[in-house]
Each structure stands twice: as C-alpha cells, then as structure tokens.
TrEMBL record:
Record field: catalytic activity: alpha-D-glucosamine 6-phosphate + H2O = beta-D-fructose 6-phosphate + NH4(+)
Domain of life: Bacteria
CDD domains: GlcN6P_deaminase
InterPro entries, alphabetized: Glc/Gal-6P_isomerase, Glucosamine6P_isomerase, Glucosamine6P_isomerase_CS, NagB/RpiA_transferase-like
Protein's UniProt keywords contain Hydrolase: yes
Pathway: Amino-sugar metabolism; N-acetylneuraminate degradation; D-fructose 6-phosphate from N-acetylneuraminate: step 5/5
Role description: Catalyzes the reversible isomerization-deamination of glucosamine 6-phosphate (GlcN6P) to form fructose 6-phosphate (Fru6P) and ammonium ion.
Any single GO BP term: N-acetylneuraminate catabolic process
Species, as recorded: Cohnella endophytica
EC id: 3.5.99.6
Name of the protein in its database record: Glucosamine-6-phosphate deaminase
Domain called Glucosamine/galactosamine-6-phosphate isomerase: residue spans: 12-226
C-alpha cells in the first residue's frame, strides 16, 4: 500500500490524473475502471485539461464504470451515464462502444449483471480501478454486510448512502433505493487500484479502512489485501491515520 497525502485539492487531483494518464500512455489499450460522485470531478477535469494538450488519446481505451442506479432514466441529470458524459466522455475521443456502464433499466437486472461481468472478462483484467470511499466504508455500492458478493449485483442502498447522495437530488426521498454495482471480487482483480479520499468527514473511515481489521463490515478494508494499492488523501482525510 502506497499512501500519499496532499495539502491542496489541486495537487491531489493532479496526482490522481497523472496516474490515470500514465496508465494510458504506457498501456494505450488500457482497461480503466471508473468511479462517480463528488471526489472524481476535479480529477476528470484535470484529465480533460491534459487531453486537450494533445499528449495522449483514449481511442484504444476501454472503460467500465463501477455502478448505476436502478430505474433512473439514462438521461436523468443524476444518472451515472449523465455524470460520465458531463465530466469526461463528451470531452475526449473515447469511442462510445468502448464505454461501459451497467444498465439500471434492464428488464432482467440479474441477467444484466451477468452480461456486465462477461464484458469485463472479455476485455481482460482491469488495468487501473479508480475508487472513492463511502462514509460507511462502501466501495462502489458494496455496502457493509455479513458477506460480500463477488460479481456485479443489485444492492439495496444503505441509509447512510441515501443520505450522502441526497445532496445531488431535491431530497433524500428522490434518491434511488437500489443500484447495480461491480462486486468486490471484480474490484480486487484489478491490476492496480487508485483510492482517492477527501475531507475531514472521511477521516474516521479512512483510518478504519486502511489500518483497521479486514472485515466485510467495512468493505474498503479488503483493499488492504491488494498488492498494488495507491491511496491519495488530502490532509483532512488523513488526519486520524497513525
């Protein structure tokens, strides 16, 4: 585990973007696992800025997003399809056929989960997986539980997750109650994992995830088992690490 701490948001975003860009430059056909939420916004903005300088291309890259809400139109402003188009896809040369996001409107969600896992397998191993960290320790939408599911699956979102995501909707009642999420097993298969966490409100869960016991009650703690984990923190998020 390689943990780096930054004293400004700009420096953290630049460092994360440089890791993603470096992966593409060294592996032009890279398979990237992408995340959504508040944390990656500045990272994607920096990636787009560097892309516009003409230093690299996404033409041969394949991407797989971690998750998508269930029963939300893909053109809804808070769908993760809309998020990715707004913050990244519409600004780069990544072919649409090479962008993969789970279909939260699939008639058979279980079949969609199987299809998504098969697509990931066919693409080869994910070279770099970008992750954020939920207040309750979730990664993707893998919530704390007695046991975690290996592959892509439908999950009932925890109350803490609904409350955290309510800031993106008119109220907590408008937040979808379920999502399709890549499983922890698939996440841990990635060759390299980049975990990015910001804010003092995440300091407790950062300590628990990185220095606490490995337990399914804190899904992010399983990242301690990964042989190539890079963690980027701002000073506030790192505040309680020993």
């Amino acid at each position: 585990m390689n943990v780096l701490t930054f004293d400004s948001d700009d420096k953290l975003n630049e460092a994360a973007a440089n890791i993603i860009i470096g992966q593409i430059q060294t592996t032009p056909r890279a398979v990237l696992g992408l995340a959504t939420g508040g944390t990656p916004v500045g990272i994607y903005k920096q990636v787009v800025r560097e892309f516009n300088r003409g230093m690299f291309s996404f033409r041969n890259v394949t991407t797989f997003n971690l998750d998508e809400y269930v029963n939300i139109p893909i053109d809804h402003p808070e769908s993760y399809h809309s998020y990715m188009n707004s913050h990244l896809f519409s600004h780069i040369d990544l072919p649409a056929a090479q962008c993969h996001i789970p279909d939260g409107n699939a008639a058979d969600p279980a079949d969609e989960c199987r299809r998504y896992d098969e697509a990931i397998e066919l693409s080869g191993q994910i070279d770099l997986q970008l992750l954020g960290l939920g207040h309750n320790g979730h990664i993707g939408f893998n919530e704390p539980a007695h046991a975690l599911i290996k592959g892509t699956h439908v999950v009932d979102l925890a109350e803490e997750t609904l409350e955290a995501n309510a800031r993106f909707f008119d109220s907590v009642d408008d937040v979808p109650k379920q999502a399709l999420t890549m499983g922890v097993g698939t996440i841990l298969k990635a060759k390299k994992i980049l975990l990015v966490v910001k804010g003092a409100d995440k300091a407790d869960i950062v300590k628990r995830a990185l220095q606490g016991p490995i337990t399914t009650d804190c899904p992010a703690s399983l990242l301690q088992t990964h042989p190539n984990l890079i963690v980027l923190l701002d000073a506030a998020a790192a505040g309680k690490l020993s």
